[in-house]
Amino acid sequence: MILPRLAPWKTLRGRMLAAAMAVEAIMLTLLVANSVRLLYGSLTEQAKLHAEQVRRC
To answer: What value, to the nearest 5°, has the Cα angle with vertex 35 and ends 33 and 40?
Structure first.
């Protein structure tokens, strides 16, 4: 007997896998965005301090 092949998104396993992959993609996007935000803030502060030091000389 040959079992019919279902599309992956029609099975519970396929839907759960797709949902897990979507959550992982969203979390990765949020982590990268947060890292960029922190890095930008740090570099801005560093540039301000450097500009102050150059102005004093």
So the answer is: 95
Phi first, then psi, for residue 12 (nearest 5°) are -65, -40
pLDDT in tens, 5-57: 778 778 999 999 999 999 999 999 999 999 999 999 999 999 999 999 999 87
CA 37 to chain centre: 12
Distance, in Å, from the CA atom of 36 to the CA atom of 16, rounded to the nearest integer, reads 30
Indicate the SS3 state at residue 21: helix
Amino acid in position 57: C
Residue 9 · residue 18 · CB < 8 Å: yes
